[in-house]
TrEMBL record:
GO terms for molecular function: symporter activity. This is Major facilitator superfamily domain-containing protein 12-like. It comes from Solanum lycopersicum (Tomato). The chain crosses the membrane at residues 20-42, 54-72, 84-105, 164-182, 194-214, 243-269, 281-298, 310-329, 335-359, 371-392, 412-434. The keyword tRNA processing does not apply.
Length: 451
């Protein structure tokens, strides 16, 4: 009876402050991730590191992130305490990220030896710590939403709010970076500029983490799960669940769309469309701004399974349209890229919010296995995107292709931004159409992941 009363209480919708407090809990991760993927190559090459070594660092981070996603998911499922794991990840991310971009070899200072080998060891050390902490924070934050409430609309509102602040985090990095990088042109100050940007972004991210921990309670649905499901949880049962694979496909395909497009967008507008240098900042800014506004709009909707599938399908079809335009847009019509960026921003928000909402619907009340679901899906998408990016980037041309301004010409960049996300979006829509969510809880789980 007590468990039933608690469950009824948790089925109530969350208030706006609770949704907002949850939504800001991933800002530090989002800020550091945007900084990492945007400026890692520029920063390290300006420090004298060869591009191949930078690529090795990036691949190491990607696979460390993927591996730690699985491990973090199992540990969180086994021991619970979402907020503690979130706090541990926050400490690792803040310390490692700041130290990485500090511009000072910490291991060299500790052991008193300053050699290129020791410097690389320092970079790899903070690279691994940063990626491991990032995964810990990500999995605990994503899995937490199923423990905060049983109300589906509130869950999607939390996801939408989080997605909105992801866009805010990216805009913060680009805005502050634009101001810092334009405040001085002296070559000797490049290292200090990156250090200052890292310091400001980490402080802003930590401020949002404090708001998250002050405004979010440790999920209580987890306690109900312990009372009503004493046999524990089993990762094997998820792997035997067909719905798990369909939702995994939808989520991974969504991440392929957003990640691949983010990497090749700036190169496309500069090299293929011959737009001004400011466009490589303006076009992404328009996309993030439109995604932010769309996420706020989605947060206000009432949600059910049919609406999740419908909105995702709309987003996928919008991206399919964008892909066709990217593949056919000539140089003399490059101004239309600004209009297209609005559509891309809306499509990204539609697909991201609803795909994560489907993850939440998959887990439903099985909170004890939620971290495994989020962790395993994160592992797959990180490995897949990492391999795809490595292959695509290896075929990139150093010099832009000479094209007739009136006609589009084939390049690896155009193919990567147009064809790959378009196919992924189309397959995602097809899988969504054949996905039916359960209406009742599955049988209790029986085994932990690691034995």
């Amino acid at each position: 009876m007590i468990g039933s009363n608690v469950e009824n209480e948790e089925a109530k919708p969350l208030g706006r402050w609770s949704v907002l407090a949850y939504g800001v809990g991933h800002v530090l991760n989002d800020i550091t991730s945007t900084y990492w993927y945007t400026y890692l190559l520029l920063y390290l090459t300006s420090m004298g590191m060869p591009p191949k070594q930078v690529a090795a660092l990036a691949i190491t981070a990607q696979f460390t992130d993927a591996t730690m996603t699985i491990i973090a998911g199992e540990l969180i499922d086994r021991f619970g305490h979402f907020k503690i794991w979130h706090a541990v990840g926050t400490v690792l991310v803040s310390a490692a990220f700041y130290s990485f971009f500090w511009g000072v070899c910490v291991p060299c200072k500790i052991i008193g030896i300053d050699t290129p080998l020791v410097q690389m060891i320092g970079y790899y050390m903070f690279d691994i710590l940063f990626s491991g902490g990032w995964s810990c924070t990500q999995v605990s934050h994503m899995a937490m939403v199923n423990g905060l409430t049983l109300d589906q609309t509130s869950r999607v509102a939390c996801v939408s709010c989080r997605n909105a602040f992801t866009m805010v985090a990216s805009l913060i990095v680009y805005g502050i970076g634009f101001f810092i990088f334009n405040s001085s042109v002296k070559q000797v100050e490049i290292k200090e500029q990156y250090h200052l940007l890292a310091t400001i972004t980490v402080l802003i991210g930590c401020f949002f983490v404090i708001l998250f921990h002050l405004g979010t309670k440790e999920p209580s649905v987890k306690q109900v799960s312990h009372q009503t499901n004493r046999r524990g949880s089993s990762w094997k049962r998820w792997l035997k669940n067909g719905l798990y694979y369909r939702v995994a496909s939808i989520y991974v395909l969504t991440r392929v769309v957003t990640n691949i497009s983010q990497v090749f967008l700036a190169l496309y507008v500069i090299s293929d469309l011959h737009m001004s240098q400011s466009s490589k900042a303006l076009v992404p800014a328009i996309i993030y701004l439109c995604s932010f506004i769309t996420s706020i709009f989605l947060q206000e909707l009432e949600w059910n399974n049919h609406r999740l599938k419908a909105i995702f399908s709309v987003g996928g079809l919008l991206w399919l349209f964008c892909s066709a335009v990217v593949l056919s847009l000539p140089i003399n019509m490059n101004v239309f890229m600004y209009i297209l960026s609005v559509v891309i921003g809306i499509a990204n928000a539609f697909m991201m919010v609803t795909s994560v909402g489907m993850e939440s619907e998959l887990v439903d009340k099985e909170v004890e296995g939620s971290a495994f679901v989020y962790g395993s899906l994160g592992f797959v998408e990180k490995v897949l995107c990492g391999v795809m990016l490595y292959i695509l980037e290896s075929y990139e041309s150093v010099t832009p292709a000479s094209c007739n301004p009136a006609y589009p010409c084939f390049t690896v960049t155009r193919f990567s931004l147009g064809f790959i996300p378009g196919v992924a979006a189309l397959v995602g829509v097809i899988v969504t159409c054949f996905t039916k969510f359960r209406t009742s809880l599955p049988e209790p789980f029986t085994e932990p992941l690691l034995t």
